[in-house]
Design a protein that fits this description.
Arc Repressor Mutant, subunit A, Four Helix Bundle (Hemerythrin (Met), subunit A), two-stranded antiparallel sheet
């Protein structure tokens, strides 16, 4: 059976989900992260564990991506210490990033489908969500606030929260769309690589919106839950659509777009 939503087949939205393709996506994300965050020689990249949790991918995929970056001379791995940026030629990487990646195309379709799914499951969740699932969602919100107050990125917990919502439907058919959620998050990291190490403007609002969703589910109020998710998703993608800017080798600002 072919899974589809909003007139799109899942394969049309996601394209290939092979390990090779995911590894290439992570390579591009990390290149953008290094350039847009203006990391210098000796600066450390996010840990392998953090990348796995934030992007919803395996350790193997992350290791393949890091190996590619190391082979290109962009990073160096130091046993027991982490992964660090080298003194590489930035102009070449910047010229690559000015052109949108084909692997991150069809972003509008991806976001449309994610919105359709997450808003659409709210009435189902109101009927099916268990007390245990609600507690898991609430624990994720507590973890988000803890990370926020520490100044750490909430991205790993944000992904866990949204995947937990899908799982709480107790529907195997709907859980097939877990790949849409994780692919959408990877697209956001590609667009806003700064989320790998710090929170973007409005993060506290995102957490508050998560709480509003859980509160509405506890009250078994489908209309309220649907409104809360719609507000959250619209704000989410308003932030994501803002273009990223980097400095070129001569110090001028360069638009590094992630849009198609």
């Amino acid at each position: 059976m072919t899974t589809a939503v909003g007139g799109y087949r899942l394969s049309e939205i996601l394209g290939s989900v092979s390990k090779h393709t995911l590894s290439e996506q992570v390579v591009e994300m990390l290149k953008r992260f290094i350039i847009l965050e203006e990391l210098q020689e000796g600066d450390r990249l996010p840990s392998e564990r953090q990348l796995v949790a934030t992007l919803g991918i395996s350790h193997l995929v992350v290791r393949e991506a890091l190996a590619t970056l190391a082979a290109e001379g962009i990073i160096v791995k130091k046993h027991g210490r982490g992964t660090f940026v080298t003194d590489f030629e930035r102009g070449r990487i910047q010229s690559e990033l000015i052109v949108p990646s084909v692997r991150f195309s069809e972003a509008t379709n991806l976001h449309l489908v994610r919105c359709t799914i997450e808003i659409g499951i709210m009435p189902i969740l109101v009927e099916r969500v268990t007390d245990d699932a609600l507690e898991m969602l609430q624990d994720s919100i507590y973890a988000q606030w803890e990370l926020y107050h520490k100044g750490a990125s909430i991205s790993p917990e944000d992904l866990r929260f949204h995947r937990a919502l899908l799982k709480a439907t107790n529907s195997q058919s709907l859980q097939h769309f877990d790949d849409v959620i994780t692919a959408s998050v990877r697209r956001i990291v590609y667009s806003k690589p700064s989320v790998l190490r710090r929170n973007i403007k409005g993060t506290s609002d995102f957490i508050t919106e998560h709480q509003a969703i859980v509160d509405a589910l506890r009250e078994r109020d489908a209309d309220k839950a649907t409104r809360a998710m719609r507000v959250h998703i619209e704000e989410y993608y308003t932030q994501e659509s803002t273009p990223a800017v980097s400095k070129s080798a001569n110090g001028h600002k360069v638009l590094v777009t992630a849009n198609t």
